[in-house]
Amino acid sequence: MSSAAESTEGILVVDKPIGPTSFDVVYKVRKALGHKSVGHCGTLDPLASGVIVVCAGRYTKLVRFLTSDDKRYVANITFGASTPSLDKETEPDVFGDASVVTEGALVAALAAMRGTIKQVPPLHSALQKDGVRLYEKARKGHDVVVEARDVVIYDLELLGYDPASATARVACHVGKGFFVRSLARDLGAAVGCPAHLSGLRRTQSGGYTLDDASPLDVVRDPERAREALMRGRPSLRGVQQIEIDETQATALRHGLKPQTTLPDQHEVLACVGERIAAVVDVVAGHLITVRGF
């Protein structure tokens, strides 16, 4: 690969502002880098801000290994009204008395939500049912039963509470989909008052934090976007890594299954020094390519 092509590939961490969609971010990065092959590692709603991880060039091959990473958020939840979308995208349709909510009740409710719980995804979401996205069914007024699914919340802490408004820190495993909007709805139900998500900022996605992120306006500039790209082994965070030698890397490139003394492992990043070779499975003393690089 030419040095020119290598200069436009890597991992770019963007601090998305409120407004743009995740695809908007991808489009702007694609335009800045002049690279068609650009993808993101997990969507962020237009009404949310914060960390979105973008891969360019060969690094798009690694998107699916980064997408299911754990996420951290700071969420603002407003009590006294709920909305069909569970956030500010739609107008309130159910109202209640926010004066019944107390800080003590919130702390107790949040504590009960930690761990593995059942969560019903929002009807206004991109999840599919019978091959149709839920938000499309919602817009057509269809009655849809959305099944609850298991989600994992590692940390859930009340950071502050003013009358009718709470701020909480959320750490979760996204798995098949975790919705902070649903968390806001469920928290309202737990304290006896309708609620909706009124603000959301993602502070961490996998191993990438706001400290790694560049503002979207910055990475729209071609030179600054290239400077912000992270490359090589250190750029892949939150993915288990193993060291292999050059002979094994060459064998993997030729579709072979070189021998190793490593224990069995699933979907680990095989590297030669700082260079990425492939994502592999280690099975019965052999390296098996899962995704080439």
Keywords:
alpha+beta, Pseudouridine synthase, 9 helices, elongated, four-stranded mixed sheet, ten-stranded mixed sheet, 293 residues, 37% strand, Archaeosine Trna-guanine Transglycosylase, Chain: A, domain 4, 18 strands, 3 domains
Protein model, in words:
With 293 residues, the protein is an alpha+beta fold. It has three domains: 3-68 and 207-235, 2-Layer Sandwich (Pseudouridine synthase), CATH 3.30.2350.10; 70-205, Pseudouridine synthase (2-Layer Sandwich), CATH 3.30.2350.10; 241-292, Archaeosine Trna-guanine Transglycosylase, Chain: A, domain 4, CATH 2.30.130. It has nine helices and 18 strands. It has helices at 3-6, 22-33, 63-67, 103-112, 134-139, 180-191, 216-219, 222-228, 246-253; strands spanning 10-16, 38-40, 48-56, 70-79, 81-82, 94-95, 115-119, 128-129, 132-133, 149-162, 165-173, 195-205, 208-209, 214-215, 241-243, 265-272, 275-283, 286-292. Strands 1, 2, 3, 4, 7, 10, 11, 12, 13 and 14 form a ten-stranded mixed β-sheet that branches. A hairpin with a 7-residue loop joins strand 2 (38-40) and strand 3. It starts with a helix and ends with a strand. The mean pLDDT is 91.
